[in-house]
Design brief:
Keywords: Amino-acid transport, Cell membrane, Membrane, Transmembrane, Transmembrane helix, Transport. GO terms for molecular function: transmembrane transporter activity. It is a multi-pass membrane protein. By secondary structure, the protein is mostly helical. It has one domain (about 1-330). The protein is about 70% helix and about 5% strand. The strands form two sheets. A two-stranded antiparallel sheet has the order 1-2. Strands 3-4 form a two-stranded antiparallel ribbon. Helix 14 (about 285-300) runs antiparallel to helix 16. The protein starts with a helix and ends in a 14-residue tail after the last helix.
């Protein structure tokens, strides 16, 4: 039972990342009909927002000491981050909490990136075949990752979680079980709660606001909404920006779990597309449900007991599930009837 609970927890934090990326992919496909292979790059850009903020906050002021000397008799260099020199204890707090603080940069930056992508490139491919959309967005993803590689290098850049959230949580003791049996990294639990909050906010926005209701109506019947005098194209452009923000936030908060590098987006892209297909193309609840389901299945498949019986199963379990789902239910778990069906 202990091992099962741990694997469920592992699956939830993986599934959180899959669900957030897949939700953005589904928003774009459901509103604009575009297969966006650059969406993984948006996840990567969000992660490097955290890297950028951390680097800026840790820029150091170097002063030569008047009293202290090195072993060679030269003045000792005293290094103090500018944030601490300017803001004191508040600067120390900003450095420690640099990952959550990065959200303040990621929100406007990712929204702007989404708008520029949609207006500058994607809109020219709305009526083109999906193969053309895949080629151009995949090319854009490669360009973005090479830009990141040029600026930040090819090696992963570790990002620390805040000190108060970097320890382990005694998950079992919190639910009345034996202490010390089920312990889990606290930041991974924070990431799951953060993802749940973001996903909940997006669904509430789409369901309970006038803007969201119009967008959902446009996803169902774009032409009719347009005939009512509503500028649905403008709203869909803003939804592209929202999808970019969701992917970016997923990347920001994932950096303490997996050190970001330039091909981080590609690592998550293919899996996220599988999640979208399994959940149902254009189905927002399906994308979220499939994300968590496949995350948990992948976690259980990575157990040593399972890999001893089926070596390598953790690498292919998601694709096996996708094959089974598409053979038995081509439209996906929660996809609309007629979508992706012959």
């Amino acid at each position: 039972m202990d091992a099962i609970l741990l694997q469920i927890l592992n699956g939830l934090d993986k599934g959180s990342a899959y669900a957030m990326i897949a939700l953005g992919l589904t928003l774009i496909f459901g509103t604009l009909g575009v297969v966006n292979f650059a969406h993984g790059a948006l996840f990567m850009l969000g992660a490097f927002c955290a890297v950028t903020i951390n680097k800026l906050l840790t820029l150091q002021k170097i002063v030569l000491s008047d009293t202290e000397k090195t072993a060679w008799g030269t003045p000792l260099e005293l290094r103090t981050p500018y944030a601490e020199a300017w803001f004191g204890d508040a600067g120390t707090w900003l450095i420690d909490w640099s990952v959550p603080v990065s959200i303040a940069l990621a929100l406007p930056f990712m929204f702007l990136v989404g708008l520029v992508m949609e207006r500058g490139l994607i809109r020219h491919f709305y009526k083109r075949p999906h193969a053309d959309q895949i080629l151009v967005t995949f090319g854009l993803a490669i360009v973005l990752q090479e830009i990141i590689k040029a600026f930040f290098g090819a090696n992963p850049i570790p990002q620390p979680a805040p000190d108060t959230l970097s320890g382990m949580a005694d998950f079992g003791a919190a639910f009345g079980m034996e202490a010390g049996v089920i312990v889990y990294p606290l930041w991974r639990l924070v990431y799951f709660l953060f993802a749940a909050a973001v996903l909940g906010a997006v669904f509430c926005f789409l369901r309970f606001t006038t803007f969201g209701m119009v967008v959902r109506a446009g996803m169902a019947d774009r032409e009719t909404v347009g005939l009512l005098g509503i500028n649905i194209d403008k709203r869909f452009t803003l939804m592209f920006g929202l999808a970019a923000v969701v992917a970016g936030l997923a990347g920001v908060m994932y950096t303490p779990i997996l050190s970001p590098d330039y091909h981080l987006g590609m690592d998550f892209l293919v899996l996220s597309f599988v999640v979208v297909v399994v959940g149902g193309m254009g189905s927002l609840p399906g994308a979220v449900a499939a994300g968590f389901l496949l995350g948990i299945l992948q976690s259980f498949a990575s157990m040593n007991e399972v890999k001893q019986i089926l070596p390598g199963i953790d690498q292919i379990i998601i694709y096996l599930v996708a094959v089974v789902i598409l053979l038995t239910r081509p439209r996906g778990l929660l996809g609309r009837k007629g979508v992706m069906e012959a």
